[in-house]
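User: Hi! I have a protein structure encoded as tokens and I'd like to know what sequence might fold into it. I'm fairly new to this, so please keep things simple.
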């Protein structure tokens, strides 16, 4: 989880450490360049100023082949206690010495090669060339363009003010603290910048979720990222889409519920009104045909019972309370039985029935009573609404391991708009006609629920005016 964000944070950390190290190195170089050398160069400038004039005079004397005057020329006024000045030829011979009595003491002299090395004092840190307890200053003396000898000034370190401060580098603790401070500052700057980049999308996500909480489900996350925040944004958009769909479905269900309550109330009130009217007539003895009134009461009572039974069955299907036991059954035989059961009504109504049921057996795994209810509903509807065309057909066939049952009629037909709602509860394509025929408007809704619980498919086709074909399909075994 948050793998990409962790990678980014590690990357930011590495960049911070790298930049901090670069800045630290630059700082060290600048510090070394300006602090240490600046103090050393102040001292060297004084030494150079005091020696440059004398070196020029010595070189002039040498160019006139007058080495004897060197002892007289070079001796200056001493600037520091213990200061010693020497003129030494490159062969090592000492031509002049401000302390001639000390020249025999090897500890107080500087080897010629080491003195040559000190010619590079200007390009080094002072603490890198410190000669034990003495600071040497060396200037080359030239004759005819060639190095003839060296002009050497040696000053005891004890004679130089604050020599310990300018002749030793900063301590390790100083550099460690400097490095830590640099890393902290660079890291803080980078993390602040990246934190803003990271926090802003989160604030936007929070704002979107807050809009959801206040009922605005149309808000969407618009930024596109490939990390976990981007994934979260896409998930929020998907959630919003699902919430909108669920909200619309709830509104549709609520609308259907209100319609169902109104339709059920109407369908219950109409036969109940007839029952009460005829019962009152019988009670008051004002009916001319008591037997007819009793027949009406009986028929309307059966209609009420059927409607109530349908309501209970539909409620049971919605709640999935009833556990259905399925058995392996020959659907061909089941269809034949249902056709035989309705055949007397077909003959009475004078409707021609076309039966297209093959001898082949189609085996399915079903709950017999439920599938019989679906077939019976299709046949009853075709018998009622196909009376206009005086024709109906029952067909059984199979394709791609599915068995299909079709019941068609030639009646008033179903328009494309009505086809999408014909399986809705209490929906009737012709409410007045259906009510007169005794339909509750629940039969097709119950049929759909039964078929779906059998992992099947159900639908209606009306390819031409006046032709209607209801069908369902079940998987064969």
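Assistant: Happy to help. Inverse folding works backwards from shape to sequence: for each of the 477 positions I chose a residue that suits the local structure. Here it is:
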């Amino acid at each position: 989880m948050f793998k990409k964000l962790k990678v980014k944070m590690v990357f930011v950390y590495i960049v911070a450490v790298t930049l901090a190290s670069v800045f630290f190195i630059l700082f060290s170089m600048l510090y070394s360049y300006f602090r240490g050398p600046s103090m050393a160069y102040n001292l060297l400038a004084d030494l150079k100023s005091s020696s440059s004039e004398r070196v020029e005079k010595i070189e002039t004397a040498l160019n006139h082949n007058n080495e004897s005057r060197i002892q007289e020329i070079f001796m200056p006024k001493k600037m520091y206690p213990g200061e010693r000045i020497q003129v030494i030829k490159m062969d090592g011979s000492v031509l002049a010495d401000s302390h001639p009595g000390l020249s025999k003491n090897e500890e107080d002299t500087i080897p010629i090669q080491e003195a040559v090395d000190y010619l590079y004092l200007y390009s080094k840190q002072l603490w890198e060339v410190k000669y034990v307890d003495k600071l040497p200053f060396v200037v080359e003396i030239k004759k005819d363009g060639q190095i003839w000898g060296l002009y050497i000034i040696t000053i005891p370190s004890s004679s130089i003010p604050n020599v310990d401060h300018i002749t030793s580098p900063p301590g390790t603790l100083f550099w460690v603290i400097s490095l830590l401070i640099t890393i902290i500052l660079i890291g803080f700057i980078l993390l602040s910048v990246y934190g803003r980049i990271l926090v802003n999308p989160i604030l936007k996500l929070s704002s979107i979720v807050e809009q959801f909480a206040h009922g605005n489900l149309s808000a969407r996350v618009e930024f596109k990222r490939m990390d976990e925040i981007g994934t979260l944004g896409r998930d929020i958009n998907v959630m919003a889409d699902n919430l909108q769909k669920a909200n619309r479905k709830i509104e549709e269900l609520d609308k259907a519920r209100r319609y169902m309550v109104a339709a059920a109330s109407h369908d219950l009130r109409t036969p109940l009104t007839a029952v009460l009217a005829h019962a009152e007539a019988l009670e008051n003895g004002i009916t001319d045909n008591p037997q007819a009134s009793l027949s009406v009461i009986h028929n309307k009572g059966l209609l009420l019972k059927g409607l109530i039974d349908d309501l209970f069955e539909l409620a049971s299907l919605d709640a999935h309370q009833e556990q259905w036991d399925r058995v392996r059954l020959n659907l061909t035989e089941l269809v034949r039985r249902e056709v035989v059961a309705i055949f007397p009504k077909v003959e009475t109504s004078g409707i021609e029935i076309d039966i297209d049921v093959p001898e082949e057996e189609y085996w399915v795994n079903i709950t017999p009573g439920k599938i019989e209810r679906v077939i019976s509903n299709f046949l009853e509807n075709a018998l009622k609404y196909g009376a206009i065309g005086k024709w109906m057909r029952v067909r059984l066939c199979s394709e791609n391991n599915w068995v299909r049952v079709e019941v068609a009629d030639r009646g008033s037909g179903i328009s494309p708009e009505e086809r999408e709602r014909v399986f809705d509860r209490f929906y009737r394509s012709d409410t007045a006609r259906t009510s007169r025929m005794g339909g509750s408007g629940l039969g097709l809704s119950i049929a759909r629920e039964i078929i779906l619980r059998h992992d099947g498919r159900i639908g209606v086709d009306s390819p031409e005016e006046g032709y209607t074909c209801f069908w369902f399909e079940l998987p064969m075994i």
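A useful reference point when you look it over: Residues 228-284 form the longest helix (57 residues). Feel free to ask if any position seems puzzling.
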